[in-house]
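Support case: user asked for a sample of complex input and structure output to validate their parser. Sending the pair below.
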Amino acid sequence: MNPLEGELKGLMTASLGGDEDAYRNILGRLSRYLRGYYKARLAQTARSAADVEDLVQETLLAVHVRRHTYDPEQPFTPWVYAIARYKLIDYLRRTRASVVNVPIDDVHEIAAHDGGAASESSLDLDQLLGQLQPKFRNAIRYVKLEGLSVAETAARSGISESAVKVNVHRGMKALYALIAKGRRS
Amino acid sequence: MKTDHLVKMMGTNLRAIDAHEPPRMILISAGLGALIALAMMMLFLGIRTDLSAPRTWIFLAVKYAFAGANIGVSLANLTRIARPGGERRVSVALGLVVFAVAFVVAIVSLAFAPASDWKAMIIGEYWLLCLACIPLNAIVPFAAIVWAMREFAPTNLRLAGAMAGRAAGGISACVYALHCTDDSLPFIAVWYGLTIVLCAVLGGIAGPRLLRW
């Protein structure tokens, strides 16, 4: 097996078990790979760096809200490549560029480029959160941004811990949907 | 927004996830869709009344074998297609063998019959009812399967839609078979085959719209 594949798969498996360090590690690496991949792929279309970064962030969020679709018995690289390619084709369709030659089998292409340092995307998190239902917005604010525990958030919001978990989960999905939908219209 | 900020946020209070769970939801929703389709058929058409004759059972078994194979192939494919990149792990051509076998069987049965019977064997009595009922009654199972698929992340939406349509068509054909009194192998190959293919084509057309994520 490709050593990179083994390493990424190990990180992803740990992430699915709830290991935050492993998850931030793999997301950080994926963001560099995705940046490199999208930069290389969009080089001809002369898009701005913010466009690349938007696509990187949308894809990272897609990975996050669909991470339950990763089957740990299968290799990781083809899974993440399929998502990256899907988001690239979606983007190319949206911008009416021609969708030529995005090979389905070039799974190692995903880690072929290091995209270097991040630039800012055009997405505004505060503005996006403002569009969510208050219960989702507050759950994400407390749990994901301020780092309060689920128990603390439950006490502060006066709802059960399981309701907080559901709100975080559905809130992240809604956030992803907002970004994906907003870029389609 | 900075990407590092997003990464930090996604990793905060990360929840463990049971990723081993197979796409069981797809099978459950297909089953629920089948029950509703069965109820609709009983309400509007009713079950055939000659269920005591052995000949009836033989043809019912053949109809179930054909429609059931379509359901089996498409649901098995869907559990793979539901995951990103899963389309690389299914063979569409292999799934089409079901239709090839049905047509070979139909042609063999025609070859053993006098040519004067061919028209009756192929056209049957209620071909129009079959043509209308199977696709119409596939709508609910199709919606149920699509609803379940939306929780996953298919990356080939046309194929996912087509397989959802094919599964729904197969389910609807199984339900219709309980009513259908056209007992001939060519009839099954042509009309059951055609309607299931129609469901798959319509599903493939609708897939990119319904399954985008």
